[in-house]
Every structure is written in structure tokens, then in C-alpha cells.
Amino acid sequence: MPRFAANLTLMYTEVPFMERFAAAAADGFDAVEFLFPYAFDADAIAAQLRAHGLTQALFNMPPGDWDAGERGMAALPGREAEFRAHLDTALRYAQALGCQRLHAMSGLVPAGADAALRARLHATCVANLRHAAERAAEHGITVLIEPLNGRDVPGYFLTTQQQAHDLVAEVGAPNLKVQMDFYHCQISEGDLTRRLERHIGGVGHIQIAGVPDRHEPDTGEIHHPHLFERLDALGYTGFVGCEYRPRAGTSAGLGWLRDWRARQTAKASA
């Protein structure tokens, strides 16, 4: 059965951030993820994880100026020193939280970029990810990259699963994997089952949300129970991050999860 992690940036927003750990545990989650922890003290977050028996599944490296629209810098020439400084910050938090996965956001392609600039972006991304993977390996941490859809994040450097897996192959680090978000993948490419089967060996984390509105994974055009079954059949043992915006109250919207768990329990006892 997939191991689900509540995304505390999008879920449980009914309460302040530091109270969301208790809320997630009360609903039966044993793992959490979030976008960024840096506005909070690492020891305080770690205390919440311990108090509620939660595993920190994932968080992102600092993305640059998020409010100004920046979405990472792994692929941005001239920002290498900043990328390395942010990596050091993320690794400190990861060690404090016992987190074994860090997402390195790639950044946005400048408008009007020609082939030469795109080649520089690619080379910069390879070099930065190679460095990040080497540093993270010292702490037993896996670095992740994630393709994002062009509707939600126009101009993002990584847009397809194949592009991401090709990049991982070029970097050649065993602790560099791809974060496969079914929401982004469905919008950008579709054919989720076959893409999952093709790439599962290089997938280090899964995320879910309903398409097209990014609500609970019980409505819209993705049949998530089928994908959960495929994850089990393919031997996926990582986390499935619930990175969606609840329609009207996080706990009230978890019927999909309760139903899935009940079906799996019934199947196991049959």
C-alpha cells in the first residue's frame, strides 16, 4: 500500500503551520512534506515530527525570490554560488529533520532564449545537480528534480518526464532521482500509466492532486486508485505526497484516503 504524506503547505491551512503536524497525525498520516521550512526554526519542526511520530518525506531547496516569481536556480547561469549556499542551508535543515529527499528547483527559462542560451542552461543544471548530488550523498540524502506543467509554471526549465530522466542519466549520480507529480504530468503529457511503467526505476517521489483544479484526488480526469495499484505492482516503496488544495476543509476531504485504506484492508483479509 502506498505511503501517503500530507503536504502541509497546501493542506491543513485551517490552522497555523506548526499545528498542522498534529492535525495530519490525527488523520492517520505518518509522513508529511511541505514546500519550504526556512521561515521556521529547524529544531521546532523536528520537535513536532517527534511528538507526532511523523517522517519528513520531502521539502524543497530555497527557490530564490519566490514572491517575485523565481522558481529555483539550478539551471540559471551566474547563480551557481547562490545555488551552493542554498544547498548548504537545505542540507542543514534536512539533517535536523531526518529528511532524506530534497527537491532542487530548476528555474525559469528567460523569455526569448535562443539555442545557445538553452545549451548554457542545460550545462549549468548538469553541473549544479552533480555538485548537489555529491554533497547530499555525504548525508545519505537523495536529490530530486521535478518537471512542472507550463500552465501553472510558464517557462519552467523542466517540463517532461523524459527530459528529467535524460538529465538524471547525464549527471550520472545514483542519488539523483525524478519527482513524478501525476498532476503536472497529466497536464503536460498524459499517458500516466505507461510513463510510470517506463520510468519507475528513476522515480524517487510521487505526488498527486486532482486534474484540472488541483483538489482532492477523487475527482477530475485521473483515476488515482488505478495508479496506486500500479505503484504497488511495480514495487514502489517511496512516499506519495498529497500536494493538493482541499475543496472545503482538509479532514472532511479525506474520504478518498479512508476509502482506499478500507478497500486495501478488506482485500488483505479476504
Protein model, in words:
The chain has 270 residues and is an alpha/beta fold. The chain has a single domain (3-269), classed as Divalent-metal-dependent TIM barrel enzymes (TIM Barrel, Alpha-Beta Barrel), CATH 3.20.20.150. The chain is 40% helix and 14% strand. It contains nine helices and eight strands. The protein has helices spanning 20-26, 42-51, 80-97, 115-137, 161-171, 182-188, 192-199, 224-233, 255-269; strands at residues 3-7, 31-33, 55-60, 101-103, 142-145, 176-181, 203-208, 239-242. An eight-stranded parallel barrel has the order 1-2-3-4-5-6-7-8, surrounded by five helices. α8 links the parallel β7 and β8. The longest helix has 23 residues, at 115-137. The radius of gyration is 18 Å and the shape is globular. 41% of the residues are buried. The model has no long low-confidence stretch (mean pLDDT 97).
Largest sheet: 8 strands, parallel, barrel
Give the strand order, joined by hyphens, for the main sheet. 1-2-3-4-5-6-7-8
Helix share, percent: 40-55%
Separation of the first and last Cα atoms: 16 Å
